[in-house]
Amino acid sequence: xxxxxxxxxxxxxxxxxxxxxxxxxxxxxxxxxxxxxxxxxxxxxxxxxxxxxxxxxxxxxxxxxxxxxxxxxxxxxxxxxxxxxxxxxxxxxxxxxxxxxxxxxxxxxxxx
Length: 112
Description:
Elements: E1 2-5, E2 8-11, E3 16-22, E4 32-37, E5 44-49, E6 55-57, E7 66-71, E8 76-81, E9 90-95, E10 106-111
Parallel strand pairs: 2-10
Antiparallel strand pairs: 1-3, 3-8, 4-5, 4-9, 5-6, 7-8, 9-10
């Protein structure tokens, strides 16, 4: 099971940190990623982090603004989001690509 938190409403230029807490599986064996989806748009893969902290960022628009990290002792992956833009508005989900779990999503709304 994955549970996200940390979403909310912010003004453009602000920051949020999303958290994804895992339970029910051996967290430090699996990569964890983040995707986002806005209604009417395709799901967009954002970033992924391996058990040994190899990170990928899959969306050019977030590079240099979003940063993924993990704390294996806390079974948690974080997504630090800085310099937020209105186009970052979406529901953000964490997932474990090989393990198969998905979170329920957390809404991020950025106003101009």
